[in-house]
């Protein structure tokens, strides 16, 4: 059976999903005339012009209720329209589990998922509805922040997304639709110091920045408080100092640590707390499937467990 590519568009209502789909169809001539079906699951501020859709060989199906998004209904749609490609505009208030767990018709293959975000309201949602908005982004291949301005905190937004969805490609667009490539992020620590002091409040930010830009820290020394992972199965001469970080809620807590080469690793108990100063080297590691930060200790001292063991992406 021939595969039918499905392009999924997620994001809160009025975040720009409909505009992105129309731009893709009308301006980019996506699919070059292939028989296209838009399965739209919400009525947003911007509506589709069905007459105009016909000019690009596209038809529209509306699903009004979440209960309508089921295998039986989707099979009926496939049988009636026989599309060659599908644009699925998912409702920003529906559970993502419905989309991820529903069995799609034979031949339907999700090939790309794009999430749109209104940069002017994202910070408000992060503060008040973090889990709900992040649910729309955690499986996206591409996250597009639109309506960006000069003072948009792009670094903060990127860290929020990467904390939940590390592989995601992130794009920033200005109100006129042009791509904003300027990086206005200011790190909360000074990387020009002989030893970069990483506080508990800044650990998650440093971890994400080092993961994305390992060469930036190559040859530099860092100092931080760490919990050591040193299980028996770990290769001798290796420890993993790091911290547990909370992204959205307790269920999303994850350990963030980098490979650390230490010839006295057997002297460091598993799950012990240490004060570590280490040189960072950008090296190939099979655990990273490529190059990444590897720590070489300059000094390691026993430390007391902090009052709050968690770090955060704020």
Task: Summarize this structure briefly.
The chain is 22% helix and 32% strand. The chain is α/β, with parallel strands linked by helices and 314 residues long. The chain is elongated and about 70 Å long.
Tell me about this structure:
- With 314 residues, the protein is an alpha/beta fold.
- The chain is built from seven helices and 15 strands.
- It has helices spanning 17-27, 50-54, 71-81, 96-101, 122-135, 154-164, 203-212, and strands at 4-10, 36-40, 58-62, 85-89, 108-118, 142-148, 169-174, 195-197, 221-229, 238-246, 254-257, 260-261, 273-285, 290-302, 310-312.
- The strands form two sheets. Strands 8, 9, 10, 11, 12, 13, 14 and 15 form an eight-stranded mixed beta sheet that branches. Strands 3-2-4-1-5-6-7 form a seven-stranded parallel beta sheet, sandwiched between helices.
- Strand 8 (195-197), helix 7 and strand 9 form a beta-alpha-beta unit.
- The longest helix is centred in the middle third of the chain and has 14 residues, at 122-135.
- The termini are far apart.
- The model has no long low-confidence stretch (mean pLDDT 90).
Catalogue the unreliable spans.
Answer: none
| Number of E-type strands | 15
- Whole-angstrom Rg: 23 Å
Q: What letter string, H or E per element, gives the SSE order?
A: EHEHEHEHEHEHEEHEEEEEEE
Secondary-structure-derived class: alpha/beta
Separation, N- and C-terminal Cα atoms: 47 Å
Helix content class? 10-25%
Using the alpha-carbon principal axes, give the shape. Answer: elongated
Number of helices, counting only DSSP H or I runs of 4 residues or more:
7
Query: The biggest beta sheet, please?
Result: 8 strands, mixed
Give the overall pLDDT as a whole number.
Answer: 90
């Amino acid at each position: 059976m021939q595969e039918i590519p499905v392009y999924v568009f997620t994001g809160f209502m009025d975040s720009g999903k409909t505009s992105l789909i129309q731009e893709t169809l009308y301006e980019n001539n996506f699919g070059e005339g292939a028989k296209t079906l838009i399965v739209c699951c919400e009525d947003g501020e911007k509506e589709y012009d069905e007459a105009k859709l016909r000019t690009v060989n596209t038809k529209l199906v509306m699903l009004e209720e979440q209960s309508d998004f089921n295998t039986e209904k989707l099979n009926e749609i496939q049988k009636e329209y026989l599309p060659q490609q599908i644009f699925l505009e998912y409702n920003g208030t529906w559970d993502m589990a419905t989309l991820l767990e529903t069995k799609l018709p034979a031949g339907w293959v999700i090939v790309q998922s794009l999430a749109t975000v209104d940069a002017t309201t994202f910070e408000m949602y992060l503060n008040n509805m973090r889990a709900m908005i992040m649910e729309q982004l955690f499986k996206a291949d591409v996250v597009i922040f639109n309506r960006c301005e000069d003072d948009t905190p792009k670094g903060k937004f990127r860290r929020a997304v990467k904390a939940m969805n590390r592989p995601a490609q992130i794009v920033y667009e200005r109100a006129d639709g042009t791509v904003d490539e300027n990086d206005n992020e200011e790190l909360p620590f000074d990387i020009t110091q002989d030893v970069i002091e990483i506080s508990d409040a800044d650990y998650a930010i440093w971890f994400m920045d080092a993961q994305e830009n390992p060469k930036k820290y190559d040859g530099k020394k860092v100092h931080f408080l760490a919990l050591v992972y040193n299980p028996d199965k770990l290769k001798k001469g290796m420890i993993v100092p790091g911290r547990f970080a909370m992204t959205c809620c307790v269920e999303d807590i994850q350990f963030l640590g980098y490979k650390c080469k230490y010839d006295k690793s057997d002297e460091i108990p598993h799950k012990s707390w240490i004060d570590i100063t280490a040189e960072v080297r950008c090296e190939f590691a099979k655990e990273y499937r490529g190059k990444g930060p590897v720590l070489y200790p300059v000094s390691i001292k026993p430390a007391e467990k902090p009052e709050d063991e968690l770090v955060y992406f704020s």
